[in-house]
Amino acid sequence: MSKIAPQRCKGNTFGVSSLGVEYTSWVSSRHLKGVKQAHQGCQAGTSRVSSRHLKGVKQAHQRCQAGTSRMSSRHLKSFKMTVGSLVHTLRVSS
What we know:
Blueprint: H1 4-93
C-alpha cells in the first residue's frame, strides 16, 4: 500500500504540472494572439485613418484647384465681358 501511494502522488504531480504548463502555454499563446490581433487592428485602423485623411486632403486639394480654375474662368469671362462693353462703349461714343 505504501508503494502505490507515492506512485499515485507522483502521477498526480506530473499530471498537474503538465496540465499547468499546457494551460500556461495555451493562455500565453491566446494572450499573444490577442495582442497581435489588437496590434494589427491598431495598424489597420491607423492606415485606414491615414488613407482616409490623405484621400480627404487630396479631395480638398482637388476641390480647391477646381474651385480656383472655376473662379478664374468666371473672372476671365467677366473680364472679357467688361472689355467687350468698354469696346462697345468706345465704338458707340466715337
